[in-house]
Amino acid sequence: MTQLQSLQNQFNVALKTLELPSEPKLLYEPVSYTLSNGGKRMRPLLVLMGCKVFKEDISQAIHPAIGIEVFHNFTLLHDDIMDNAPIRRGKPAVHTKWNNNIAILSGDAMMILAYQELCKTDSSVLSQVLEVFNKIALEVCEGQQLDMDFETSENVSIADYVNMIRLKTAVVLGGGLKVGAIIGKADAEQANSLYQFGLNTGIAFQLQDDILDIYGESQKVGKQKGGDIISSKKTFLLLKALELAEGEQAKDLQKWLKSDAETEKVNAVTEIYDQLGIRKLAEERMWQYYDEGISNLNEVRGNDVWIEMLRDFSHNLMHRES
Amino acid sequence: MTQLQSLQNQFNVALKTLELPSEPKLLYEPVSYTLSNGGKRMRPLLVLMGCKVFKEDISQAIHPAIGIEVFHNFTLLHDDIMDNAPIRRGKPAVHTKWNNNIAILSGDAMMILAYQELCKTDSSVLSQVLEVFNKIALEVCEGQQLDMDFETSENVSIADYVNMIRLKTAVVLGGGLKVGAIIGKADAEQANSLYQFGLNTGIAFQLQDDILDIYGESQKVGKQKGGDIISSKKTFLLLKALELAEGEQAKDLQKWLKSDAETEKVNAVTEIYDQLGIRKLAEERMWQYYDEGISNLNEVRGNDVWIEMLRDFSHNLMHRES
Known about the structure:
The structure is a homodimer. By secondary structure, the first copy, chain A, is mainly alpha-helical. Chain A is 75% helix and 1% strand. The first copy, chain A, has a two-stranded antiparallel ribbon with strand order 1-2. In chain A, strand 1 and strand 2 (91-92) form a beta hairpin. The radius of gyration of chain A is 20 Å and the shape is globular. The mean pLDDT of chain A is 95. The interface between A and B is large, with 36 and 37 residues.
């Protein structure tokens, strides 16, 4: 078992010790349903790795890592209501399996449970950890609001989009690492470099997600291929295509964006993307953020083994198929 | 100006200093709309009074008091979605004025903003304050779930009902006082006595609310008279009537509970209540909790002026008309 796998196992074992009250059933069953439904557990692992860079003993980071994972799952739960998304990780979303009210309230409870875990941080750094967490938690809400705003907005720039995914997705990766670093007693500058590394990696990660929506192997992605195209989601790919398409091609793209014919729409829009070389442009942008993240990581002075593992982690994220 | 009014003013001024980001508009406008819509500001006042009992200087209690008020308003915001309640304090509820998604997300943001304020507590007591807050916040969710469960449950006892209002309403009053006491550096026993005082007062307060639904002056209450009867809500009054009614009266009551004829339903059920002496029984129960609260308060040793004001506060709550 690699050191990373061992850390992963340690987290999974710890997560199972999270004790939920048994009553009211309809409040807590959706919480344990959500938490037992897997996922990459990427964010808590970043908390633990962020700590490892500065301190061998990660026992103080376990509960905050659980807190970050519970928070992340809370956001998915509420997002699925807002996006009317019926499926999460191959199983019915909470609002589908139960109903909207239960999804709202059990989500609320999850956010409090997340804070409860975060509050088990050693009191010497509690206030610092919560300051980071409160900030990123609010930013995630801002990102989700922008995401919803963009659905009906006609004027979304690529910069707007990158700002949205920074808030909605990337800050939790950066914040997780920073929380770990603070618990590992890193100085402020080092903790911030790690945060920036997470932020840039997170933006690259989301761009990769956008690319995989069309160019990934849909079976491994676990989502409908081209789902973003079907919903005309303003991802980097679509925004870039809207920017570059001219004449007939631009008209064609606009026409297809209004279409309900799902398969034809995916095929036609993908063809336009291919003609415009959108995949390559998206990948270039992704690697830019990746590189930026790596230079942030290069500024970090700590345990080289774990810095190297963070480098690998980031690299593997870019080469994933799902 | 009385000392209590001066405290109230101090809080209102402080609340106005709460700075919200301006963007995204649709995330933060509903928050300021909610917070500027008044309310009794009872819970933050209890935080400040709880502190005053043990310490003259309440400056450390202001932000936590804002946190408790923001949290309370968050719960109302989400409850209104779940209860499909269109009006809050005489104005459209957030989910009516905007929509459900915006109400879910701005509510989530409010919960985080509440924590942000609570985290401004002095670090010497931060962990204690958050422990109390996390506990009561989760209990409020449990109370709301039980409240929803009871809508369709056939077997709700009066004890179940009291437990529900304890969780949904009373713990925030008790918790607010306890947070204030902790910041005032009260010892654990004193802080707990104040908590119990708040808890019992809170239960009495909710029973009074149930009574006012029918026997209050609806104009002052600001709600539709008999709203609980119209929705067949299982309050203390209805549960007691179901317990006491026999023969024809019991059949009548059951028949009216299924009726859609609002005015006739309110009149008929009120008549049954009157025949059974329900108002008196409810008031007796209310005064029992009030008395219990007062004996908890009698155990508290601190600034007598403020203990006296808490006594008055509780007494006035029982004699309110809205």
